[in-house]
Amino acid sequence: MEQQLKELKEQALVKINEATTVKELNDVRVAYLGKKGPITDLLKGMGKLPAEERPKMGALVNVIRESVTEVLEERMTKLEEAAINEQLENEFIDVTLPGRPARTGNHHPLTRVVEEIEDFFISMGYEIAEGPEVEKDYYNFEALNLPKDHPARDMQDSFYITEDVLLRTQTSPVQVRTMESKGGAPIKIICPGKVYRRDSDDATHSHQFTQIEGLVIGEDICMSDLKGTLSLFAKKMFGDEREIRLRPSFFPFTEPSVEMDISCFKCSGDGCNICKKTGWIEILGAGMVHPNVLRMSGYDPAVVSGFAFGMGPERVAMLKYGVEDIRHFYTNDVRFLSQFHRTEA
Ligand code: 2U9
User: Fold this and answer.
1) pTM of the entire structure?
2) Pocket test for ligand 1, best of 135, 309, 314, 316 (most atoms within 8 A of CB)
């Protein structure tokens, strides 16, 4: 049996040396050291040996198994290393190749314009106020000096939910709510947000659009404060060379009321398609807060006065970026949106 064991060991060592791949070597391991291999068989057959021979033979089988295992593991390490080296050589990765650029998102053009307008007014000391889009008739109309029989309250023009509740048609109710909560204290706010009107959608109208309104209330607030503020605003949004002009207008919530034009940023007054050959572009409406509006929300028109203005950021964005159809802002076509890449760092 001793001789048999030595031959087995020699055979196993030869097979280990002959194996050239990890798989072949694993086959050798299973064949010689596995549960069904000859060494295990020999160990199982020990019971048939005379009792005095068993310890010696048992020790010999173990020594042989250990030395075969040791040689096999050494060889396995070498073959594994060789396999990895071969893989590294064959699967060369050129890390200098340029990668595919990741497609990044960017701010919606309307968001950019709204934030630009907000930044200007924040820099002038205004705070941002927000309020509900589903609003009471009182805050949307009544408190803004639009009595029950006013044509702007026509059911056909607004999305009414009940007789007294509607989707706000302007962000003015936010100002009214702020006035109520301030109890007569000075106010300097802008109110950006979505508004809703029953309009048929076309290139310049949308049933839902964005507004930014502003309200300043305090002692001695006068028309020249409004004019100075709007003049700075026009220069910030459309360039330092912009001039403004105020034309008389009418809004139920302001008296006097004005509409503001800026000198055309494309032709500087010579006349072009943007300013319809007039040299001026209408940007927003404004005025001094009507005494009725002040009174209804707890301010005494004999003590304080205020100015207010309102604009549509869609119109500002259309002029700034040359967008010809308002619906582009809402249809989220990436071919449109991807044209507005951030240029600042
Ligand atoms: C209060 C008092 C007065 C807000 C104002 C305008 C003039 C105006 C339009 C611009 C384009 C609406 O989006 S648009 O169609 N707005 O011309 N808005 S003054 O006046 C207020 C608001 C709140 C308490």
Assistant:
1) 0.74
2) 309
